[in-house]
Amino acid sequence: MASSIRVRATSKDDITEVQTLIQHPMDTGLVKDAKGETIPAHYIQELKFECNGKEVFVANWGTAVAKDPYVKFSFKGAKKGDDLKISWTDNKGTSDETTAKIA
Amino acid sequence: MKLRILLLLGSACAALVAFALASPRVIAADTVDPATDAKAFQNFFFQKFPGVKHEDFVNGPYSMNEDMKRQWLEKEEFPPYEFALDAGKEMFATPFKNGKTYADCFPNGGIGIRQNYPYFDSKEGKVVTLELALNRCREANGEAPYSYVKDEMASLTAYMAFTSRGKKMDIKIPDDPRAREAFENGKRYFYTRRGQLNFSCASCHVQSPGERIRAEVLAPALGILNAMPIYRSEWSGMGTISRRFITCNSQTRAVPLEPQADEYRDVEYFLSYVANGLPISGPGARP
Amino acid sequence: MTTTTGPHPTRRLILQGAVSVALIGLGNLPFAPALAAANDKYPDEAFKLKNEAEAIKALYGKTPEPSDKIKLDAPEIAENGAVVPVSVTTTLDKVTSISFFVAENPNALAASYRFPDGAIPAVANRLKMAKTSSVTAIVEADGKLYSATKDVKVTVGGCGG
Q1: C34 domain residue, yes or no
Q2: Distance CA A86, CA A97 (A)
Q3: Which chain B residues are Cβ-neighbours of C156 within 8 angstroms?
Q4: CB B188 within 8 Å of CB B32
């Protein structure tokens, strides 16, 4: 099973730009399925980025973040080849993580 | 004197241009030559939207609306079809139970060939689409066929389109009356009104591209299949050409056909042929 | 990472209870604001509130003032409420957090981002919008709160079936 996390991290002039796309339904708990039954809320609550053991960016999400969520941010202090660890946890307690090399 | 000649020349040129602009439609009405048809079809869109670059028509409604185009470009930075594309690439490389792969069923191992589909198969006497060829490949290798409308089929075609991006649509109509008939049949299907709303495909996608129907901006028919398969926000997922035809029919409250029915294969043949020369841009993302 | 983001289940229960009381009652939070954005806990209570002003208060414990140093980018007409690209950049100094609120959504708070030292104060994400609404970006900088707001028209809602 492939990772749920896709990441692109590129470093230029001391600034690392990170783009992430995560495969997740982000169900709001407000939508009914074809049988008329409510699909329970299921969404990522926390997404963390760590570089060289240091937290660089944290997202807290509610149900209003779009399906297969995307986020882009930048930070300083990393260089090409450094490891960027990305991890998420959702409201059902499921989690996933991956480590990407900064390009 | 010189001035008069120049003026005369000028008006002669103008007349020539006017003739050139008007003539394809006249010829199209009188003949059944697909090449002339395709030219007239493309010229219609090029003249209706002089500000749109020709290769941009394959981007559907985004070629028609600046605000939407910005949202799309933003999404394309990390597009929503990314997961389907990855899944398709993996599926394509995974052997069947008999050890063969999809690559064994297609010219050039299936890479960079999207622009040649659909094609007319003279043995069968019918149009063969990429989706059909994929399922035939599966069945020939002892695997069950996939649903034509989404999921695996969308992932596989997404990957095959991706390897063909930028290649120009290159559909051939062989010298075979049945091929010509398939083209004509597809064209007839495209222009025929049906359903409770009494719409033809052309009512929306030829007469009104760029305009809103309810909340949606209509895509131009020219190049509409070059972007397939697509991730539609409305579907919250991927859909194939089959899915697109079926939803078009049900949205106009017509009874959809079965996926890969002869009429759908023919209309795909027609729509792809008239987009010859425009680049493959699939997989695409749409509202 | 395992399943425990909230190591204090009882605390969460108590907070939820308090929020319900607040909603039924006066709309005033009967406890000192948790300042969730300032610490590391998932701000469950702020995400559950319906009203934007209350959600901002629950998250930050104070009210923002508009700032022209925040650039909020969102479409005029969303192509589909299910996926609305929204981004923010700011020239404010010492930014510690940026949050997005959609006033007309069932719950106003959509996303909240924390910026440790070294992060550039800018973020782009994609939100759902139930209907036409204002979108507000709140920037916490040097302990103060600033905001920028933009109206986004939604013709196809992103929360229905």
Answers
A1: yes
A2: 5
A3: 215-216, 234, 287
A4: no
Domains and CATH numbers, chain A: 5-101 (2.60.40.10)
pLDDT band, very low/low/confident/very high, at B20 (cuts 50, 70, 90): very low
Q: Which of residues 11-40 of A touch C (CB under 8 A)?
A: 15, 26, 28, 30-32
Specify whether the CB–CB gap between B233 and B286 falls below 8 A.
yes
Could you tell me the residue range of the domain that residue C114 belongs to? 9-154
C60 inside domain: yes
Interface test with A, best of C2, C3, C4, C5 (most A CBs within 10 A): C5
Interface confidence, given as ipTM, is 0.94
The residues, ordered by sequence, that sit 6+ positions from B57 with a Cβ below 8 Å of its Cβ are B45, B49, B63, B220, B222, B223, B278
Question: What does the block give as tokens for B120?
Answer: 């007319």
pLDDT of residue B243: 94
Which residues of B are known to be catalytic?
A: 248
| CATH assignment of the domain containing C62 | 2.60.40.2470
pLDDT tens, residue by residue, A1-44: 578 999 999 999 999 999 999 999 999 998 888 888 999 999 99
Total domains present in chain C: 1
B29 forms bridges with which residues in the sheet? none
For residue C117, name the pLDDT band (cuts at 50, 70, 90): confident
Q: What is the pLDDT of residues B202-223, one digit of tens each?
A: 999 999 999 988 778 899 999 9
As separate numbers, helices (DSSP H) first and strands (DSSP E) second, chain B gives 10, 7
User: In this complex, do C127 and A64 lie within 8 Å of one another by their Cβ atoms?
Assistant: yes
Tell me whether residue C3 is in a domain: no
H or E stretch at A71: strand A70-76
Is residue C59 within 8 A of residue C67, CB to CB? The reply is: no
- The superfamily in CATH containing domain B42-287 is Cytochrome c-like domain (1.10.760.10)
The answer to whether the Cβ–Cβ distance between A69 and C109 falls below 8 Å is no
